[in-house]
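Dear colleagues,

For the upcoming journal club I promised to circulate an example of a predicted protein-ligand complex. I picked one with 6-O-phosphono-beta-D-fructofuranose because it came up in last month's discussion. The inputs are reproduced below in full, followed by the predicted structure.
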Amino acid sequence: MIKRIGVITRDCAGINAAIRSIVRTACEYNIEVWGILRGYEGLMKGEMIVLGHRSVSGIINTGGTILKTARATGFLTEEGQKQAVKVLKDNKIEGLIVIGGNGSLTGAHILASKYNIPVIGVPATIDNDINGIELSIGADTAVNVALDALDKIRDTATSLERVFVVEVMGRDCGYIALQVALAGGCEEVLVPERDFNISFLCDEIKKGSIKGKISWIIIVAEGKAKASDIAEKIKENTGLDIRMVVLGHIQRGGRPTAKDRILAARLGNFAVETIRKGFSDVCVGLNSDNLITIPLEVAIQPKNLEIESYYRLIKLLT
Ligand code: F6P
């Protein structure tokens, strides 16, 4: 029976609730949990703390990660990976639970498939781009944070009859942009996965303005374009008064929503059950309210976000 596991995280709302669930479930089985600080960077350096029942008190409602995190370019090399494996072996850590997005789960898959370390992934990313998993921890909070900001922007956009370009997060993925555009009743959305034509958009705005529609909100995912560039082009082309807002990292922080906390509690618990049973190289998830596991190799493949059907609905409803 597994006696000691490590937990490693990225950063988004709900991760602390997942750590709490993992630690408290592990306590039930007398499994020791070591929190690895600063992601794979800390793993390579052997930076760890022991987490007990009480050390995860009062964190269910907090954003970020109590374990801190970092981008770890060194872990991309074989030397870095071997160093990480050595740290695990030296400290008798028999398995790892990795909570994070595509990059973190790719690292998890490498440790499991190449170095035979028992590893379970827990999907947690505001981009919600883990393939085969309906919803990742942190995505619901991020969409709600962005939507809250957007509703405020709409108030002033409507009052002053202005066009606003609002940039949301999503370097490779239009998830937040599409969700927010639909939930916020926005007129246009630009995402990395879809081509768009700026002159067509400007013509639409000009035609609308002739009919009296002056207030527009255009959402742009950061990986598609800069809001400032789009705003500039629309201004040049239409002569209208344009403003732009970059929402930025507020989307990755904040108190996790109830949905994220519940998801984190369930997935954290299930991750411990899964590693106890001897599974490895899989990602846990919830689909149609059922707990599932899928191979990490599948989870890190590109996810189909049904962009076109979302886009059509957003345009239809404006
Ligand atoms: O992968 C999550 C994410 O928040 C993306 O949506 C965003 O583009 C990126 O990370 C930002 O990364 P950083 O915090 O390094 O600026």
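Two points we might discuss: DSSP finds eleven helices and eleven strands in the chain. The longest helix spans residues 139-160.

See you all on Thursday,
B. R.
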